[in-house]
Give the backbone structure.
Amino acid sequence: NHYAGAVVYETDGFVQKNKDEFPREASDLLESSTNGLIKDLGKFVNPSADAKPSGRGRKPQRSTVAGQFVTQLRTLRERIMSTSPHYIRCIKPNNKLAPDTFDPGSIVEQLRCAG
């Protein structure tokens, strides 16, 4: 249970793996789609669209997968914050899903762990 229990991450190679560039072939494939949504996704992840200069006249560096993920999260957060979102949290009354039966311990645990 990721959100409710202890989590152990394996970090060997984590930084190197997230320095990978988004494959140009993948963004080209998305951009060549006839589906408008898929085509927009291709533009969103296209490395050339957000290439950054690396300094002192060198050619721009392509965006990394991790860098694009951060940009996507920032964009998503901005979109959500520009609206008036309302959320409903559903809580299971008990693990057996039996009617008219409430397990206070289970309910408190769900509320404590936000899920």
Remarks:
- Residues 14-81 form one domain.
- DSSP finds five helices and no strands in the chain.
